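Supplementary notes for students who missed Thursday's class. We covered one full example, reproduced here. Read the sequence, then the structure, then the short commentary at the end.
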Amino acid sequence: METIKFESADDIRVHKGALKMLLYAVNYLLKKLEDAKITNEIDDYTFNIKTFNFGYDFYAYTSIDGVLDKFYSIDIRTMQANKNKLRINFDFGFLIATDIILTDSNEKNKAKITNIIEECIIKSEVKNNKVLEGVC
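Structure (token representation):
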């Protein structure tokens, strides 16, 4: 496990903000996966969270008979040039990136994350349906 070394109070504030936004995004996505499990849309899922010097990586995936079905990844990094910003990359089979400004309200940042996750889920479902239509 890697140890994070904080150089200043700004580093602590940024990592606290990154962790708070990561936990919000992860909880939101895991609730979606739990709901899909309850409605038998998926059997189960696996997830992992990794930390590194300037951010966090989260990924979750579902599989059918050992074959990867759906993959969700959220990568949160601090911006080196501006310590008030976080760059969040969402990868749900395609990449969407957004910046979170830590001086904005938590509600505004949470709404931004929620909207992007919903947009990603809808796009991934449409993409999966098009692939299935092409196969059938």
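Commentary. Residues 9-38 form the longest helix (30 residues). Residues 9-135 form one domain. If anything here is unclear, bring it to office hours.
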